[in-house]
């Protein structure tokens, strides 16, 4: 009984097939989309992979269907813009005797870019209010934190805060996430309040040294916006 052979090692991203690939350098697994109709496509592997005279290669790809892997249907560059070398081995095993297999991308840039292939999640009812509050804090102090943000709201929230701060001040901001917290920083605004920040830091140190080991009430963290506090359901 013939053993079924595997096709290309691709995943579905928002309804679009994307090939798992490796480049000439580095260990990251990248994604390549299908080629545009206006450009020639690239096959998942070079044709010599199925050359029976190259025994060291041909035995490794024996579990794959040649017609599928040699079909020129993939873009020549990955989502992150790199020229890729060959498909990563999948369910059929490694493509070379010394190769490995992969079933998901690991390139951080490719992982970021696949978001555009999925529909945007519906905005939470508190989205606009939290974005406005965070932008207010950044415009006043140069930095802010938004805590407790659901994962599906983080990307759009970061974009909206950056836009609001830019529209109000003309300055750019940097944002990043750690777990459920979104951090926002605007260097230009922060520099305008450098003396005030330094004075607040000095006062905090003085209070700590004067406490003699006794805990003192903490000042309100006025740079923190809580997602949960503004639940408008």
Question: What are the SSEs and their pairings?
Answer:
Layout: E1 10-13, E2 16-23, E3 30-33, H1 55-58, H2 66-70, E4 84-87, H3 108-113, H4 127-141, E5 143-147, H5 151-169, E6 174-178, E7 181-185, H6 187-192, H7 194-210, E8 224-226
Parallel strand pairs: 5-8
Antiparallel strand pairs: 1-2, 2-3, 2-4, 5-7, 6-7
Fold and architecture overview:
This protein is α+β, with helices and mostly antiparallel strands and 233 residues long. The protein has two domains: 108 residues, no CATH class; 104 residues, no CATH class. 31% of the residues lie in helices and 16% in strands. It has seven helices and eight strands. Strands 1, 2, 3 and 4 form a four-stranded antiparallel sheet that branches. A hairpin with a 2-residue loop joins strand 6 and strand 7. Helix 4 crosses helix 5. It is elongated, with a radius of gyration of 26 Å.
Oligomer: single chain
Give the domain tally. 2
**Which spans of ≥5 residues are poorly predicted at pLDDT below 50?**
none
Rg calculated over all Cα atoms: 26 Å
Give the helix proportion (percent range).
25-40%
Give the N-terminus to C-terminus distance in angstroms.
60 Å
Shape: elongated
Number of beta strands: 8
Largest sheet: 4 strands, antiparallel
Q: Give the percentage of residues in beta strands.
A: 15-25%
Strand-pairing-aware structural class: alpha+beta
Write down the secondary-structure element order. EEEHHEHHEHEEHHE
Mean pLDDT: 85
Tally of individual helices = 7
Which key features would you list for this structure?
7 helices; 8 strands; 233 residues; elongated
């Amino acid at each position: 009984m013939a053993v079924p052979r595997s096709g290309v090692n691709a995943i579905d991203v928002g309804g679009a097939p994307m090939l798992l690939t490796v480049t000439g350098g580095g260990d990251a697994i990248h994604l390549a989309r299908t080629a545009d109709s206006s450009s020639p496509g690239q096959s998942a592997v070079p044709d010599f992979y199925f050359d029976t005279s190259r025994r060291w290669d041909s035995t490794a790809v024996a579990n794959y269907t040649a017609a599928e892997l040699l079909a020129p249907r993939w873009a020549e560059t990955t989502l992150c813009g790199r020229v890729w070398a060959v498909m990563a081995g999948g369910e059929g095993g490694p493509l070379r005797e010394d190769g490995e297999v992969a079933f998901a991308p690991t390139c951080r840039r490719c992982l970021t870019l696949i978001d555009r292939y999925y529909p945007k999640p519906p905005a939470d009812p508190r989205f606009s209010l939290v974005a406005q509050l965070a932008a207010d804090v950044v415009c006043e102090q140069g930095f802010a934190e938004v805590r407790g943000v659901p994962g599906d709201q983080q990307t759009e929230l970061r974009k909206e805060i950056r836009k609001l701060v830019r529209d109000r001040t003309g300055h750019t901001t940097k944002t990043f996430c750690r777990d459920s917290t979104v951090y926002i920083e605007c260097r230009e605004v922060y520099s305008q309040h450098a003396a005030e920040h330094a004075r607040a830091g000095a006062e905090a140190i003085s209070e700590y040294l004067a406490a003699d080991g006794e805990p003192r009430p903490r000042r309100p963290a006025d740079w923190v916006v809580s997602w949960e506090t503004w639940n408008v359901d």
